[in-house]
Amino acid sequence: MIQRLFLTGMSGAGKSTIGKMVADALEWRFVDMDDVIEERSGRSIPAIFAEDGEPVFRALEANLLAELLGGNDVVIATGGGAVCNDVARAAMNASESTLSAWLAADPEELLARVLAHTDEDRTTHRPMLDADDQLARMSALINARTDYYGAADVTIPVGNRSADRTASDLVELVNLANGIPSEVVLTTENAVSRIRIGRGIADTVADVIATNWPKAQAVWVGVDAGMSAVNQPYLESLRSSLDIPVHIYEIPRGETSKSLERYGEMLGWMLTAGVERGDVAIALGGGVVGDLIGFVAATVLRGIGLIQIPTTLLSMVDSSVGGKTGINHATGKNLIGAFYQPPVVLVDPRFLQTLPEREFRSGFGEIVKHGVIQASTPNGEPGFLAEVVRLNAANLLAKREPAMSWVIRQNIALKANVVAADERESGVRQYLNFGHTIGHGVEAADYKLLHGEAVAVGMCAAMALTVARDEIDATYRDRLVEVITTYGLPTVSATTPEAVLQKMRSDKKKQAGKQNWVLPVREGGVAVTNTVTDAQIEIALQSILREE
Known about the structure:
Layout: E1 4-8, H1 15-26, E2 29-32, H2 33-41, H3 45-52, H4 54-68, E3 74-77, H5 86-92, E4 98-104, H6 107-116, H7 134-149, E5 154-157, H8 163-177, E6 182-187, E7 192-197, H9 205-212, E8 219-224, H10 228-241, E9 246-251, H11 260-272, E10 280-285, H12 287-299, E11 305-310, H13 313-319, E12 324-329, E13 332-339, E14 344-347, H14 357-362, H15 364-373, H16 384-391, H17 393-397, H18 403-421, H19 436-446, H20 451-468, H21 474-486, H22 497-505, E15 510-511, E16 514-515, E17 517-520, E18 526-529, H23 534-544
Parallel strand pairs: 1-3, 1-4, 2-3, 4-5, 7-14, 8-9, 8-10, 10-11, 11-14
Antiparallel strand pairs: 6-7, 12-13, 15-16, 17-18
């Protein structure tokens, strides 16, 4: 149970302003450590530095932190250098009931904020910034402290962002850590999908069925046959929690299961066993399971109830949200299907603990993609998610909570906003296809890459293509490639150009015979174009295809 929230970061990050807002929302008390030290000593922070030196001030910080650990329900704004003190840092990480958050920003933004709030009488003077070149000093301090700040449980970029949005995120992080689920409501013209995120939320499925489908006579579960370590304990719990039959169909792993043959077999399975229109289908697995059983649920008896319970990171942040269901065809991926919004999606990060590492990392392909397109999405914050993904790599790769649940929620909210604005992909929903034009071609050519891996390769190709069109700088491409490799995703493929081109020709994103491409733009975000030339495609393919 989280009972204390420590806010760390440089001067100018907004720790005091944001901390007060978080404390008010949680009905906790707020403590600004610098204010307490000044009150107790009867001197300003600059005076303590000038008269006693930095070591004395750091000792006062450490003692106060140790004292604050004895209290509960408190938000604590630390001084900018508190994390450099071994004793203070140990105090902040001493308890499982403590959550720490680094409020991060670029040195230019931080210095501008500090100078804007420096009083004429210098009562808010920052002694650590005493230098002829204050920007260089700010940059040096950030570089010296980054490793310490980065050890926080979560990092939130605050540059060019309102304090209330950051405060809202911090409240949500505390709630997620304390077992209070988050909910994103996706409303389209014809349906409402409630997406609930939180550890243990999948255990509520019996109540969900009783509330939403009280006349259900059976539950029809599609599961990934290769994920028994993830599925079996949950299936046993599901059976014991329901007083109606639970039918289970094991779907062989891989994209090849999304076939007409498998789809027909599943329809036969349900119809032969007496499925009724009031029944509920559950997709328990990754994107393949979700797409396939979602399409079955959309079409059997012209539609039955559907609950998506994604068990892979990729399906949590992408394929379980938005109502796309379907199967593949020999000519390409996802060419047959339907839009069918699941009334309920239960996103439980506990499933990630038993997910194979490659499957887990594959999900970051879609997360990185969302960071690139965010500036172009409804209510999108330019650069925010991309920075979250970059700065929290260590926490996310370690599946550290509540950072993992919070980032999943951020991705779901982004996609829900896009789908709500354009359910059937006639406008902004096309932006979700960034990295998919070549990525789908690479994936469908031989299905050796997982979907998120193929999207990563496709994003690298799209970046190379856009550099060739002189629409972005190579440094932008290089930054994205660095993030992709940080998460252990591939940037090249052994697929042949001929195989990729063949699959691209049947891509469903064509309009009026021309291929639509989603490409990054220099100012951030993406745009759709159909002016890509064959020569530019060749450059893109040469950048990502390698012989085995």
